Every structure is written in C-alpha cells, then in structure tokens.
Amino acid sequence: MAVIYPGSFDPVTYGHLDIIKRASKKFDKVIVTILNNPSKKALFDVQKRVELLENTTKHLDNIVIDSFSGLLVDYAKKNDVSTIIKGLRAISDFEYEFQMAHTNTMLDENIETIFLMTSNKYSFLSSSVVKEISKFDGDVSKLVPEIVEYNLNKKFRGDI
Ligand code: ADP
Questions:
Q1: Active-site annotation holds for 89
Q2: Confidence at residue 39, expressed as pLDDT on a 0 to 100 scale
Q3: Residue 157 main-chain phi, psi, to 5 deg
Q4: How far lies 138's CA from each of 15, 92, 126, 143, in Å?
Q5: pLDDT above 70 (res 159)
Q6: From the CA of 6, how far away is ligand 1's center (Å)?
Q7: In whole angstroms, what is the distance from residue 129 CA to residue 81 CA?
Q8: Residue 107 Cα to chain centre, angstroms
Q9: Substitution candidate for ligand 1 out of 5, 14, 19 with most atoms within 8 A of CB
Q10: Which residue has a Cα nearest atom 15 of ligand 1?
Q11: pLDDT given at position 160
Q12: Does ligand 1 have an atom closer than 6 angstroms to the CB of 24?
C-alpha cells in the first residue's frame, strides 16, 4: 500500500525523518509531498525543500519526494492513493489534525488518515523551533541533518 505524507517541511527535521523512516517500514511506498502554499511565508523555496528531503532520505528506497498545490484530496486522487500519514506530537497537534482528517474525509470519503505517534525524543521538535534557534545562532545539530544545518547557516548568515 502507498501512503502520502504531506507537510511544509520548511525545513525537514529529525522529527519528520523519524516518521518517514517508520512509515517506510510499514508501507510499500511513501510519497512525501510538500504543500506549496503561496499565502504561507516559507524560509526555503519548494525546490530547496525538495532537495533537502531527497538528500536526507536517499538511503531509503521506497520514498518519493514531490510537491503539490491545491487540495490534498485532489492530489491523492491524482496519485491513486487514499491513505494519508501524519505525525502527532503534543495534544496541541491533535485539534488541527482532527479537523484536517475529518475535512479530507468529508471531501473524499475514500480518504483515511493514519497517525504515527512522535518518538519521545522528537516530541518537542518542529521546523519553527529549528528556525528560531538557528536564526539566533544556536546549535541545531541534534535536531536536523548536517545538510539542513548548512543551509540554515547559509540562509541566516550568508555563505559560510
Ligand atoms: P512543522 O512545521 O510543525 O514541523 P510540518 O507541516 O512540516 O510541520 O509537518 C508535517 C507533518 O509532520 C505533520 O503531521 C506534523 O505533525 C509532523 N511532524 C512534524 N514534526 C514532527 C515531530 N517532531 N514528530 C512527529 N511528527 C512530526
């Protein structure tokens, strides 16, 4: 069975990679897809986010990296996939994810959303936290792979 793992991935963190790795063991194919949402200001453009995801998942052979705009249910239908994977961190994620899952099923009754519980050590980790730390020159080496750290440094401090 193939599943879709959607998100902003701005940028990809060890929290995302943990979900991707665990999903890749349970499902035949995991399509990690970046929502291209022009109304949400991102730090990295979609092309760079794709590149970072490709680079950090290349050791897994059943992962496809893609991007989409518009409704997730339409993207899922186009790809002939009816299962969405999401990660759940704190209770704060629950309300939003609950709403999204029901909305997507309302739009397309074939769509199911499956949740993977965050690994304990990444339960506090989000892309926004990583950006905040990196912006103020903090150490993000335990939160993101080296290539992501390099690109954050480049973004916030120019070429180094
Ligand atoms: P964020 O910007 O908060 O990291 P994304 O939109 O990129 O969020 O997240 C995409 C999906 O990955 C969501 O289902 C989110 O709950 C999940 N996710 C993000 N970080 C983690 C984490 N540390 N552990 C588990 N799931 C996560």
A1: yes
A2: 84
A3: -130, 15
A4: 18, 25, 15, 11
A5: no
A6: 9
A7: 31
A8: 22
A9: 19
A10: 87
A11: 54
A12: no
